[in-house]
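Reader question, answered in our methods column.
A reader sent in the components of a multi-part assembly and asked whether the whole thing could be modeled at once rather than chain by chain. We filled in our standard form and ran it. Here is what they sent:
COMPLEX SIZE: two components
ENTRIES:
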Amino acid sequence: DTAVSQTPKYLVTQMGNDKSIKCEQNLGHDTMYWYKQDSKKFLKIMFSYNNKELIINETVPNRFSPKSPDKAHLNLHINSLELGDSAVYFCASNYGGGAGRYNEQFFGPGTRLTVL
Amino acid sequence: AQTVTQSQPEMSVQEAETVTLSCTYDTSESDYYLFWYKQPPSRQMILVIRQEAYKQQNATENRFSVNFQKAAKSFSLKISDSQLGDAAMYFCAYRSALGDMRFGAGTRLTVKP
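And here is the structure of the entire assembly that came back:
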């Protein structure tokens, strides 16, 4: 069974379009994240949701809007796509608190977004 | 905010040899967790090893071990008996007890046959 899944895995689109990436986790975690990995492989956190509530909102253009319908899902919608949005986007999840093994963050397979 | 520094953008090792990847971090907290993740060309992020800051004993997982120096805020990863499948990007990460994860810039490891 896939722990953290993302769809689609690849997304190619034109500048100006609106697109969404979906994420689901079946681990019972209460916290989910979106990361952006640029061409230099740097991983930058974008958003964090705990029990459907936004916890972290880093300096991200407001064209990016996360939506969490329930604690197992965190989707990312991007409006008016720009060339600089091309990157790999990772969804991740973990338990918001606790110790030891419960702090491990599980990642989805990533979505490679290419904006032409 | 906590920062994580990986000072080696690239490292290479001969198959069967040992290599150490460096990581330092900056924090004022006493309770936190440290991780090493591996990202092979498949781009999947895979947990390699974790360390709780309150534990003095260094974590080990088969061929992977860490050298955790809390006072120096250092958390290096040692890979013994390197295998071709170890070739990947390696990310050091810091997480406070109730906070988010912060990643270093990564080290690209090449394994030479």
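What stands out: Chain A has a mean pLDDT of 89. The first strand of chain A starts at residue 4 and ends at 7.
Send us your own complexes using the same form.
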